[in-house]
Amino acid sequence: MPSNPHDERDNAVPASVGIVETRFARLFSDDHPLQFQIGAELASVTVAYETYGTLNANKNNAVYVCHALTGDAHAAGLHSADDEKPGWWDGFIGPGKALDTNEYFVICGNVLGGCQGTTGPGSVDAISGKRFCLDFPFLTVSDIVSVHSELVRHLGIKQLLAVVGGSLGGMQVLDWSVRFPDQLRACVVLASAPKLAAQGIAFNAVGRRAIYGDAGFLKGQYYDSEGPRYGLALARMVAHITYLSEDSIELKFGRRLQDSDRFAYDMQKETEFQIESYLHYQGKRFVQRFDANSYVYLTRAMDYFDLSEGYESLAEAVKNVQARFLVASYDTDWLFPTSQSKELVSALLQAGKHVSFTELHCPFGHDSFLIDLGPLNEMVGPFLEQA
Amino acid sequence: MARYQLPDPSVQLVDELIMRHIDRESSVIDLGCGDGRLMHRLHQEMGCHVVGIDFEQKNVNSVIQRGLPVVAADLNKGLADIPSDTFDFAVLSQTLQQVQNPRQLLMEMLRVANRGLVVVPNFGHWRVRLEVLRKGRTPITQALPYEWHESPNLHFMSMFDFRELMESIGLQIVKERPIIRGRSVDKAWAANLRADSAFYLLERSPAQKPA
Prior knowledge:
Chain A is α/β, with parallel strands linked by helices and 387 residues long. Chain A is built from 11 helices and 10 strands. In chain A, helix 3 packs antiparallel against helix 4 (229-243), helix 3 runs antiparallel to helix 7 and helix 4 (229-243) crosses helix 6. Chain B has 211 residues and is of the alpha/beta class.
């Protein structure tokens, strides 16, 4: 099995938050339901979340982490001593790291519509007693943020020191800063964009088509059967390519063959090249941990995201932002290219906001923000100290 | 972009000269801000809203550490990401001679800001001329302490040259202050011969100003 760049997260810093546990909060009520952007309501939302570090007496040291498309609330530490892998941003969250748990109270919640403990299309609708499937309300990045924001209030925190996120997580940070400007003092937006470009929508469309086209999809009502395993795996394979870069894929796999040093010339053989084997492995592993309906909902939320929607311009959209911004892109990221971060930075400058920006050099493409944590720690740490 | 290294007293002199021409609480963009030294003073002492531009990640981190905003950009590629008319002042201190296209950068500078503050070394200084004449070699002076092959300075201009360029691109020199032996002076006899460097306050010519 080829190794996985995702498994090479920078865990060089040994200090860890240790053993952690996922907790659950029940938010909203009949009197105070979650209002979806499109008008639907939910009277009860369960959120899976984890926290690291300690909330101080003034409750002003909380940092919220927004995860990306297929992430979860388990951002740091281990669930048990014999856990194989730490949380997905373990090199970035912990004692002495940028999100220093000696100083900050770090919160990470699974997104609305997800499948890792937070209410989503796979959850049971309290009214019908059945799983929502595709009857789950159409959700947007704003709806995801409304739930994050409610979780923060539920934890008794008036204002966050910062909200941090990459990719779809960065979109949540942006929406948050515009819709709840006084709930956060600083924003860190990594490998993200103020809107999803056509190229991103295109890849999401292919992924969804793979799921819809799988005979096991059953219009989303597949929970008593195997589900669209093939389609979901295919969606992941395509998406995964977009997270890599030409350099990283070439360096890691090149044209190397999987289990021979000569071509097999065999049409029955599914994997000849290492890159094939790697993508199949990614697809297979993804199916074990992710729900196809969630994938369809969340990629749609991403497609629809446009911070400037309803405003004359992006600068107009960020007019009421109060937080300081740190924006970073990666030179090999072609899914969320630097030009999109720059568009955001220009708008923030035009609106007279406090914004810092840099393009980091890293060969790992869009995934760089999950892998290359050294430069990020050096920059985000001091930024938060001054927030 | 690394800022041209002057001896310390001059650094302070140049910083203070620049600060004297900037309004309190105005907005300032510092092009080639280095570690943010001048930005910090403008922010702390004058309550200015400052943004730095620098290309080196080390400098970007230093400015962030000061709690000030900084945008990583290569001045050789212009200021495309900075919206027009965003700042009251743009500062370009000891950097112009190091960029590939000074003419373009000066115009960009006055696109994003109403006024420009520029400090450049004067290659018309008599010591420079004497070095060339006497030795027939690239001059090395206190203000120009580099061997030709290691110098970050790409362009060599005198005060006369600078004036001519301003005229050709339609920028107005509102104020010119020669810096002679560590002191900036209002006016000087034979300034182009005597000044180590010069300070300029620039504006767009009336025809180019926004309505």
